[in-house]
Amino acid sequence: MNRSLIAVLSLVLAVTIAVPATAAQFGLGLHYLRTIEEIGSSDDGFSQNDWAILGSISIPVAIVRVEGDLEWVPDYLGSDEHLWVPSVHGFLDIGMIYGGVGIGWSYLTGDFGGWATNPWYGLRAGLEFGLGGLALDGFLSYRFQSASFTEGVQNVNLDAFTIGAQIKFGG
Hints:
Layout: H1 3-18, E1 25-35, E2 49-61, E3 64-73, E4 83-94, E5 97-104, E6 107-108, E7 114-115, E8 120-131, E9 134-144, E10 146-149, E11 153-157, E12 160-170
Antiparallel strand pairs: 1-2, 1-12, 2-3, 3-4, 4-5, 4-6, 5-8, 6-7, 8-9, 9-12, 10-11
């Protein structure tokens, strides 16, 4: 396993263990991803559009908020393969508005799958509205990634524009 992936997962685990559960905020939502570059043709069944189910945990640490996400894309790029995406973000909050950076890794199932050779890096900005004990979080992001998955999928530009929403509770 790649050292960068181990570092990202270790950071998420360390922060999750170190912060009391009462400070954590949990979320569940949907995430739309649009790959910028065309991958194959629509005649072959490929699609630039994907939907993911998103789960998250947000933890305040000093002046930032650290968020760990896990996404599941059931039909990635129209391939009938599943994509799992663990990631971590660091955000600065300014009232209801937040913004920050993130890093994540992709795992594609199937014959041509496996862990991506490179992580993705992202920029994300959003609005989070408090609703009593709940919060509604809507965000936009851009992911930068060029990666390969085993021998079957080589050096693919996977840059993506994304939009998502989740309901958060706790904290």
